[in-house]
Amino acid sequence: MSDTDPVPAPERKRGSGVKMVYDLLRDEILDLKLAPGSMIDEVQLAERFKMSRTPIREALVRLAGEGLVETLPNRSTIVSNIDFLNLNPFFDALVLMYRATTRLAAQKRQPQDLAIIRGFHEDYAEAVKTRDTLAMIATNAAFHAAIAEAGRNPYFTNLFRRLLDDGRRILSLYYKSYEDEFPQRFVEEHAEIIAAIEARDSDRADRLSRIHAEQIVSQIVRLFSRKDPFDMTL
Amino acid sequence: MSDTDPVPAPERKRGSGVKMVYDLLRDEILDLKLAPGSMIDEVQLAERFKMSRTPIREALVRLAGEGLVETLPNRSTIVSNIDFLNLNPFFDALVLMYRATTRLAAQKRQPQDLAIIRGFHEDYAEAVKTRDTLAMIATNAAFHAAIAEAGRNPYFTNLFRRLLDDGRRILSLYYKSYEDEFPQRFVEEHAEIIAAIEARDSDRADRLSRIHAEQIVSQIVRLFSRKDPFDMTL
DNA sequence: TGCATATTACTTGTCGACAAGAAAAATATA
DNA sequence: TATATTTTTCTTGTCGACAAGTAATATGCA
């Protein structure tokens, strides 16, 4: 009999490999399963996903473009570091994007936008009720991302998405200690923000989102000052 | 004699190929030498640069990450379109980043930052004096990018760099008709902004940069309403 | 032993080739 | 003639292999 079986069947469509490893690495980086600074081995990934190094490399190039990974020329590529000791740039940008996107949403929103936003609002409320911390982080991000989409400014939505990614990474450090003192208040604030967007009151949307953002920031700061994050060396 | 000459010498260092074609394509896209929507042929580029398709592809992936090209799965990659008919998102983001970066620069600047900023300020003044439009665009961008660097917020500097890129692309449409009514005034405004940054007066820096940004925007709007850009089909 | 140099082992960047998929062309069918 | 189907042509995505470059190890030397 012939030893050329009909090819072991790669069982995987043509452009899907890159996306798979990209998504996986992205998740592992944002959840800090891959520690900042740790090396990424191309051949190891190639074996793990049973593909050649080419799609692996493409995924790494894309991650490097988003700043999640750093490519040292002719040497290994490593997971990017976050400066956990100086989060001010992150906070500044986060607050400003909260404001800008919410303000724009109040101006540009369409009826269908509100339905989507309300959906995530309810998801978040549900997460708070069940005290599911990871779901809270995810649905809160989705809620604000939806607001940003309603603002229809790609420059802002792109930066905001990156900020929410980094926020997820930062909160991963602490998600065990993320207590439920504030989340209930956040639910109410979200409702107020929705009302302002629906009323097309951009000034009120701006004011509310600013207060909201600053409370989130101060909550993070409080978490960071309260106790050390796990035992990770910075 | 042997026909294996000591290899025609690729005469090109190891990681440099990607950067070469990346830089070239980026320039050609931003200067509209490559029309939005036009196809990019990998093999053609490979022949032109005398290298294999691999580094070409990596450059394209990076450009796609910055939104300058669009990769259609299993089909060609094309130069991204700019929505020239609705520049409002661009203007909104541009004005906000002018303000945010200048404000931060007034807070965070170090002595050496001012020297760099003044250098580009003089370059811009020189470009205005010699009426070199392309140099004006470039040095003005460099001036504000330097201010953004002094603000030391990577989120803002990255977005701002992208905005300045798109601005270069937009102005390429018109650079012939970019008259010299305002540039002289811009020189003076730049000087005022520098003074505010030096005095660490962030409120004044904010106010001045806002006025400055809005004048630039209105100048662009005026250009667009005055006459049609070349004969390019949108 | 301690430092400089050469050798080795390993990783990355590049290459040419091939196969999957899509567009274009050619052929068949009503 | 117009539409549907097949064939061909071309481009892209993936692969395995190799060369350039770096880090680690071994060797030479004071």
Automatic annotation (TrEMBL), chains A, B:
The keyword Hydrolase belongs to this UniProt entry's keyword annotation: no
Keywords: DNA-binding, Transcription, Transcription regulation
Residue ranges of domain HTH gntR-type in the record: 15-82
InterPro entries, per the entry: GntR_C (IPR011711), TF_FadR/GntR_C (IPR008920), Tscrpt_reg_HTH_GntR (IPR000524), WH-like_DNA-bd_sf (IPR036388), WH_DNA-bd_sf (IPR036390)
PROSITE patterns xrefs: HTH_GNTR (PS50949)
Pfam families listed in its UniProt record: FCD, GntR
Domain of life: Bacteria
Protein name: GntR family transcriptional regulator
